[in-house]
Hints:
By secondary structure, the chain is α/β, with parallel strands linked by helices. The protein contains 15 helices and 16 strands. The strands form four sheets. It has an eight-stranded parallel β-sheet. Strands 1-2-3 form a three-stranded antiparallel β-sheet.
Amino acid sequence: MSALKYDLEATCGEARAGTLHTPHGSVPTPAFMPVGTYGTVKGMTPEEVRGIGGSIVLSNTMHLWVRPGDTAIQQLGGLHRFMGWDGPILTDSGGYQVFSLKKLARVTEEGVRFRTPKDGEYRMLSPEVCVSIQENLGVDMAMAFDECIEWPADRERVGRSTERTTRWLRRCLDARRAPERTALLGIVQGGFFPDLRAAHADELSAMNLDGYAIGGLSVGEPTDELLGMVEVVAPRLPANKVRYLMGVGYPIDIVEAVMRGVDLFDCVLPTRNARNGQVFSSQGRLNVKHARFKLDPGPLDETCPCYTCRHFSRAYLRHLYLSDELLGHRLLTLHNLAYYLGLMQRLRAAVIAGPDALAALRAEAVLASQPPGAFN
């Protein structure tokens, strides 16, 4: 019996609104997962994440394996208890982190042997180890181990890598010990070759997995190529299973992907950009370091109901950031996540309302994704 159930409730073209049911609660979709790499959303308490509309978070398999260790977390009651979060958790497979460490990694059919920057130790991450780690963590949704390769890559390399990802997926399925507690999502690869993407989506769809992810994107390619691959893959995936686009992206990227049939997203942008002084808003991105905000008494976003915007001025937030005060990082992070999570709630409502509502939200997302300039 699958640990996941997805109910499709409304459509608008390819866009979908539904509810994802997990052992630790339900998630209205489309949904955004704040990234908690080390078992924490940087600068935020679980209560704060809940308070701004967060219903599911993402953590990182490889990093938690290295520190403090999946067996240590298991002994302490699992990742939910360890991090004080009682909602659903998805963990990535570690494949992307291995991709980012490619100078320290060697890929074979068995798996990936790599040297971790944290402790300098050599480790072997295989499909079996990947599944064991995530089941030890006790998460709701685990990702199958896949090979994420660079962009651009030639067709022969992409084809070999995609076939290996399928073989690794089958090994992941064979390695499962707690399918009723931890769902396993397969990852569609195929590079930027539409026929390879379509064939891999069809192959994985026939396997009747718990859910599906679109991987190997957001690795440096132009946005139109990314969306082109989403447009190829998403409609080919089962309508009764959740669809997750990994590592994407800016507000407009998310809206465009929802309009192509994607349900679930994660990205470090709202938290990372906050730590760099960049703010997402309905009127475009802001850089709080800019001198024009020195005496600005207004909130970051007049339309935002978050704690930061209700209590603090741009001038004060600029002061905190330039003073390197921790509160500044926390307040900017809270606002950025509130914007993303609010965007998802409005996206869901727009899918239900129809094309005009989706078009209006797309126009806002275009503005919200513009890089900050001297004017803001």
